[in-house]
Amino acid sequence: xxxxxxxxxxxxxxxxxxxxxxxxxxxxxxxxxxxxxxxxxxxxxxxxxxxxxxxxxxxxxxxxxxxxxxxxxxxxxxxxxxxxxxxxxxxxxxxxxxxxxxxxxxxxxxxxxxxxxxxxxxxxxxxxxxxxxxxxxxxxxxxxxxxxxxxxxxxxxxxxxxxxxxxxxxxxxxxxxxxxxxxxxxxxxxxxxxxxxxxxxxxxxxxxxxxxxxxxxxxxxxxxxxxxxxxxxxxxxxxxxxxxxxxxxxxxxxxxxxxxxxxxxxxxxxxxxxxxxxxxxxxxxxxxxxxxxxxxxxxxxxxxxxxxxxxxxxxxxxxxxxxxxx
Amino acid sequence: xxxxxxxxxxxxxxxxxxxxxxxxxxxxxxxxxxxxxxxxxxxxxxxxxxxxxxxxxxxxxxxxxxxxxxxxxxxxxxxxxxxxxxxxxxxxxxxxxxxxxxxxxxxxxxxxxxxxxxxxxxxxxxxxxxxxxxxxxxxxxxxxxxxxxxxxxxxxxxxxxxxxxxxxxxxxxxxxxxxxxxxxxxxxxxxxxxxxxxxxxxxxxxxxxxxxxxxxxxxxxxxxxxxxxxxxxxxxxxxxxxxxxxxxxxxxxxxxxxxxxxxxxxxxxxxxxxxxxxxxxx
Lengths: 326, 282
What we know:
The complex is a heterodimer. By secondary structure, chain A is of the alpha/beta class. Chain A folds into two domains: 47-245, Rossmann fold (3-Layer(aba) Sandwich), CATH 3.40.50.300; 250-317, Alpha-Beta Plaits, CATH 3.30.70. Chain A is built from eleven helices and 13 strands. In chain A, strand 11 and strand 12 (279-285) form a beta hairpin. The longest helix of chain A is centred in the middle third of the chain and has 18 residues, at 189-206. Chain B has one domain. In chain B, helix 7 packs across helix 8 (158-184) and helix 8 runs parallel beside helix 14. The longest helix of chain B is centred in the N-terminal third of the chain and has 34 residues, at 3-36. Chain B starts with a helix and ends in a 7-residue tail after the last helix. The mean pLDDT of chain B is 85.
């Protein structure tokens, strides 16, 4: 059985259109004009147990709305979805015991109290008996290295420390599926890396299925093996990260180190993106040019000391996806 | 089914029920601890009641002296000041849940609250009650001390306090259900504060916050008594102060019915609100 199965999931909202100025405001008061907005448009995908999948797209693409339907908070307008075999919006409470969600910009910990108090509360909410709770708490404290943070008020923790506590808190009840919405937002480089390592370890050691939403290419690249790209409510890509990187932009990057100085290369459908005395970085449009011909051309014309052919950085891929969407 | 199997089943059921109820106890505890995290803020919040008590004590002193009467509307001066202390404590202690819920709807924080395995209405009731308890007690201590100092008498007898406690508990529960219903309007209008403002003023005017209903003129007193606002403000304060036990059972019955209606309203609102929820902020 798939961990998450989504088929033709659609969510439409009614929004009131309000004209500008006082006149617009008065008209909206007496004769409101409503418009239907499709936030999620017939999205379909399947995620197997233990998979770790990036769910990416620009702001307003419908990612969070989809996650909220999958956690049972929102009712869809049409379509079907099951999470661990349950229909989220019909069996929300039952499902809540088996899933968890972490929203990077929101907190589930009591701001003025130490994390330990919030952990105790969550253990009670998820109906864990004391023995099981103590054992699990010890595991998570060790895994997330939050022992020294447990008795400090949350307001005194750094963002990285707080997020480690947030994720640990959401795992108390051993969820089988974890929805992570921007878990590294606002973190510094070290805290971000630590969070990525933890998510990977969790997935590896406990087999937790993870659906990760992030605008950070590093998160996607380092944590996930597969990506689902959503844009304007529709799925526009669903495959491995390698395929996304290889195919979405349709270009390759050739990084050249030269033993003799050379002028920037002029060649059809090849763009010189970086140039210095002994280095050149070229972007080749692989849909229009054959890579082997370009390489042959370079080797015959230039004194090449080293050559590396790379897929474009994932950041560029995601930026291109977002540009296309807008 | 064997007796042993039946016993095991009963034990499991008891354990499940205990675990289910434990979450509300834990929520009460954490909410209370959050409130007590800043005791100075709790006391400072109650400073306002000092000003109110000072002004109204002076006014009632003058009124009683000018009229030359020992009682007004069935209350002595001391009782009147204690009545005021109680009504102020009821209203000033109310948590700002309405504003919080509409903020949660606006910011999307609600997603966290709804995705948990608990009864949202009961959970919020428990956390709001824990928030209200220390505020109520501290306000009452300050206002009661002032009432006693200004009137020179402690006008609350243990028997009337005992009779008043369940009435007070029911009053706070009714108030919470109405406030929750108003808060849930945020699902439709996104800002429930104007409605809450009207509700607050109705409680002040028709609930008998500043003036006991027994001092209201005939028709207005009848209308005010018929409305649910008096069950939240006037009834608990007057029972605790005057110890009028005659109609106590009837009063409690009326409160229970009001609570049932208010709770049904809140649950109905919640049911429809969640179905049409449009969380903001992605």
